[in-house]
Design goal:
Number of strands: 15
Number of helices: 23
Strand content: 5-15%
Largest sheet: 6 strands, parallel
Radius of gyration: 32 Å
Structural class: alpha/beta
């Protein structure tokens, strides 16, 4: 609520005291006392033995003036800026005189008897909180971070932990409605998250892996695509000898990174993954225990460590180059060659004998199935993964009978393709749900049939059903959010709700469970 001049003058007698030089009494008799102020959490001011609460500073607007000046401690802030922030760009006609009255109110509370000689100073065109006269918790937080940047690893870790202790409560805890405060709070929260990631990394380096895991886990609850947090989590688990947990974490990371932002984990994570595979390869029995429903990775075995050689046959050179680069970043995959026609692809396969062939279904000189048949006739052990956007039922039946390992959408998830290259086998052909959905939509039906929803089962809201249907079409979170015109965070909330209600842990598992229950056939409210 905007305060009026009348309201302001109830707090201040002599609204323009700050515009006049201090009286002899103020300059000589008043003694400026150093202030100790906290703006992390509720605002609290200590002047000597006197504690001044946020409600004792003359009202919401004077308090906000003080908070804005404290955020710029030691730096002048213009009156125009203060007016613009306080009234959100729509100041009243009397804004300047009202602001000056607020400053007078603050001075009487913060530095009684000192006039303009205390911490709250008047400068040309504005005001400033004098750094030498204020001990501010946010300033101590900044100092610790600066010192940590120049200290040895052990000392740096301790300083980062102290900084996090100071920042354990939100900035500007009294300002729950002001838009400017919310922006400052969000910026500070992002900064604290960065410091928490630094502390997690430091914890790994100084032999505190359990703390690294705890800090990283906290970060990932709020930001599941924070790669620094994933790195600290995986390294912390590795350092503490929890190799299987580290592999599960890497699998979750890779899936989330691909679904949410369409990229692979960075070099540090991939190097850790390679080490973990090496560490667990010696014991197939132990690796077989890697069965976490939240991880897309199947059990690890010693076979995983051998590089898988891959030939790509596709007439789109840009796609082939990007895919080759992606394959070469994986420690257990190796691109051996690429071809742009069926004829050259078959010749390359016969010469190089790759473990896996990635084949485009549509090629300039023939279809992929014909080329695949020639490759399999020469080398039956070759695994073939077919990429397409428009399969037909006949093509799928033919592919299955030939021993094709998988049919995937060409524009689909990279992590799905990589996992398929590693683990798909002939005799159990993988068909991506989005391709199955296309086949279902293209098949003519005499009339819409609505399956009865399993009685006593979970109930999804209409919006959750919209999200689920798009998930069934193979869309990731970003695509679903775009199609439904909602934010990515809102979409993630719906996905989490779907997972919780269905008792599932992945997009594919949710679609399968919903299909089993007849939920996808429910008529849409829209």
């Amino acid at each position: 609520m905007v305060q009026t001049v009348a309201e302001a003058t109830r707090w201040s007698r002599g609204a323009h005291d700050d515009e006049f030089p201090p009286t002899a009494k103020e300059g000589a008799g008043g003694t400026a006392t150093r202030l100790s102020i906290s703006i992390l959490g509720p605002l609290k001011v200590r002047r000597g033995s006197v504690v001044i609460g946020s409600h004792e500073l003359g009202g919401p607007k004077p308090r906000q003036v003080l908070e804005i000046l404290l955020l710029k401690l030691g730096t002048p802030v213009s009156k125009n800026h203060l007016i613009d922030v306080l009234w959100n760009g729509q100041p009243p006609a009397e804004a300047l005189s009202t602001l000056e009255s607020y400053v007078s109110v603050l001075r009487r509370h913060l530095q009684p008897g000192s006039g303009k000689g205390g911490a709250l100073r008047t400068v040309t065109g504005g005001y400033m909180m004098e750094r030498s006269m204020v001990d501010l918790d946010l300033d101590r937080f900044d100092d610790l971070l600066k010192q940590a940047g120049h200290a040895n690893p052990d000392e740096s870790y301790k300083m980062l932990e102290k900084a996090l202790e100071i920042a354990s409560v939100p900035l500007l805890g009294d300002e729950l409605l002001a838009g400017w405060a919310e922006e400052e709070r969000a910026l500070h929260a992002a900064r604290v998250a960065g410091i928490k990631a630094r502390a997690a990394e430091a914890a790994v380096s100084v032999g505190q892996p359990e703390r690294a895991v705890a800090l990283a886990s906290e970060l990932l609850l709020d930001d599941p695509i924070n790669e620094r947090a994933w790195t600290a989590l995986v390294l912390g688990l590795e350092e503490s000898g929890q190799y299987m947990e580290a592999l599960r974490a890497y699998g979750r990371c890779r899936r989330v990174m691909d679904q949410e932002i369409g990229c692979l984990p960075g070099r540090a994570l991939r190097d850790a993954h390679a080490r973990l595979l090496q560490a667990t390869a010696a014991s197939d029995d132990e690796a077989a225990d890697l069965s976490d429903a939240d991880s897309p990775l199947p059990p690890v075995s010693s076979q995983s460590m051998r590089e898988i050689s891959i030939l790509t046959i596709d007439d789109h050179s840009t796609f082939t180059e990007l895919l080759t680069a992606a394959l070469d970043r994986e420690p257990d995959l190796r691109s051996v060659a690429s071809a742009t026609t069926a004829k050259s692809g078959v010749e390359q396969s016969m010469a190089l004998k790759p473990d896996v062939v990635i084949m485009d279904y549509h090629l300039p000189d023939g279809d992929g199935l014909t080329a695949a048949a020639r490759i399999l006739a020469d080398a039956p052990q070759t695994r073939i993964v077919m990429l397409t956007g428009d399969p037909t039922p006949d093509a799928l039946r033919t592919a299955a009978s030939m021993g094709i390992c998988a049919f995937l959408p060409k524009g689909g998830s990279l992590s799905t393709l990589l996992d398929t290259l590693r683990y798909a086998r002939a005799g159990n052909m993988v068909v991506h749900p989005s391709l199955v959905a296309q086949l279902g939509m293209s098949t003519p039906k005499p009339a819409p049939v609505v399956r009865e929803v399993e009685p006593g089962g979970p109930v999804l809201t209409p919006r959750e059903l919209d999200v689920l249907r798009l998930m069934a079409g193979g869309h990731g979170s970003k695509e679903v959010a775009s199609k439904l015109d909602i934010s990515l965070n809102t979409c993630r909330g719906y996905v989490k709700a779907i997972f919780a209600k269905l008792g599932t842990h992945s997009q594919l598992e949710s679609v399968m469970e919903a299909s089993r229950r007849g939920m996808l056939e429910q008529p849409s409210d829209g």
